[in-house]
Write a structure and sequence with these properties.
By secondary structure, the chain is an alpha+beta fold. It is built from 3 helices and 6 strands; from the N terminus they run E-E-E-H-E-H-H-E-E. It has one domain: 2-Layer Sandwich (60s Ribosomal Protein L30, Chain: A), CATH 3.30.1330.
């Protein structure tokens, strides 16, 4: 099992309000902002993994992602916010692909003051 902790949560796909101003969501952001966000997630996952790779990257994986947020997103937005996280796992070769043939994804949200993301990756096959 690989367990990672990243000290941020992914941006939801819809716009939100923070500090009295509108913050664009993942779907409404400029392509360069989405690319920057993906690059940031890739680097933060690499740092959290400490350079470890996956011994069996082609095996089917169970990926459990727990989002610790101040406010919960509705389930479809929470799952939609995971795209840069899954792409960061794939870029770091912790999973082979983010298709349903390669991973089983479980997402949970926990309300708390300290926002962070916990990721656990386990082999489902032998």
């Amino acid at each position: 099992m690989i367990a990672l902790r990243v000290d941020r949560v992914p941006v939801g796909p819809n716009s939100t309000f923070r500090g009295g101003r509108r913050v664009p969501g993942l779907l409404r952001s400029h392509w360069a902002a989405r690319k920057r966000d993906l690059d940031d997630w890739t680097l933060e996952i690499r740092a959290a993994a400490g350079g470890i790779g996956c011994a069996r990257p082609l095996a089917r994986k169970l990926v459990v992602i727990v989002l610790h947020r101040r406010r919960m997103l509705d389930p479809d937005n929470a799952y939609g916010s995971l795209k840069p996280v899954l792409d960061g796992l794939r870029r770091n070769e912790l999973i082979a692909d983010d298709s349903t043939a390669r991973i089983e994804l479980v997402m949970r949200q926990v309300v708390g003051q300290l926002e962070h993301t916990e990721i656990a990756i386990m082999d489902l096959e032998g």
